[in-house]
Amino acid sequence: MLQLFNAILLKQGLTPEKAMQCAEVFTNNSIDGVYTHGVNRFPRFVEYIQKGYIDIQAEPTLKHQFGGVQQWDGNLGPGPLNAIHATNSAMQLAQQYGIGCVSLANTNHWMRGGTYGWQAAKAGFVFIGWTNTTALMPTWGAVDNKLGNNPLVMALPYEQEAIVLDMAMSQYSFGALELADMKKEQLPVYGGFDTNGQLSTDPGAIRLSRRPLPIGYWKGAGLSLLLDILAAVLSGGLSVEGITRQKTEMAVSQVFIAIDTNKLGNHAAIAQVVQNIIADYHRSTPENNKAITFPGERVLQTRQRNLRQGIPVVNEIWETVNKLNK
């Protein structure tokens, strides 16, 4: 998969370094089981390059800095590359100031937000980051879309790996709905409303109505709104409303915050504190003998399984990817 992605991106004109970086992001997302923002999303990434929505030559430029806060312009470059750069910049600021906040305007889809949580946490930092999107979710009590699903990522180091929460503000991302619909599977819990305004577990019906359910109902809607406002304010970039007026989802705004826990007074005790919390969490009494896992734990299990057995891919998608290399 990595070799195929890399070959395709080289044909699209990316430099060898950029092609391999992007190929690694899409491959690692697929290895970790996030197929919706890995192999399944790759053809659209190539399409956006071909249509000029993604400028493969662009590099992010620093617009403003004050202390541990930086504002960057992504110049519509490849979203994953801009996000990796922003995460590295936030970590560098955190090493200097204890905390670094990097905002990124005018960038493209970062694919899986958890990528940057893992990146920072594996380097020893606490990470908080989010992005806004095009409008694709109604606020609570409305029927038209004014909110993005605005994914939020929180991460911290844990033993040799990390605890990583990566969540959209909709109960299911549109990528997850698309995959479930393709596989003709019902959702395990309500994911949105059908065209009759009834809660539904049918991903096809929810995609048709374009009324996904905010997490926590009105609470998720409120959180989505605030994430959008803060992304636009901190970056000086577009809000959901402005992004929605673009020809496609592009020129989004993102925020990356890194904290260097080595600068904290209690840094020597942090690892034990986290271990104690997770040990108590794992002692939860499970329902129906289901395993109790912390955010990111199932990703580790999926990663090990896919590295051992291979990455499961929908045949139709794999055929589409292979055609891009001809």
What labels would you give this structure?
326 residues; Hypothetical Oxidoreductase Yiak, Chain: A, domain 1; 3 domains; seven-stranded mixed sheet; two-stranded antiparallel sheet; 43% helix; globular; Mal/L-sulf/L-lact_DH-like_ah; Mal/L-sulfo/L-lacto_DH-like_sf
The CATH topology of the largest domain is Ribosomal Protein S8, Chain: A, domain 1
Q: Categorize the overall geometry.
A: globular
What is the string of helix and strand elements? Answer: HHHEEHEHEEEEEHEEHHHEHHH
Q: Supply the CATH superfamily name of the largest domain.
A: Malate/L-lactate/L-sulpholactate dehydrogenase, NADPH binding domain
Second CATH tier, the architecture of the largest domain: 2-Layer Sandwich
Pfam family, one: Ldh_2
Keywords: Oxidoreductase
InterPro entries: Mal/L-sulf/L-lact_DH-like_ah, Mal/L-sulf/L-lact_DH-like_NADP, Mal/L-sulfo/L-lacto_DH-like_sf, Malate/L-lactate_DH-like
Protein name: 3-dehydro-L-gulonate 2-dehydrogenase
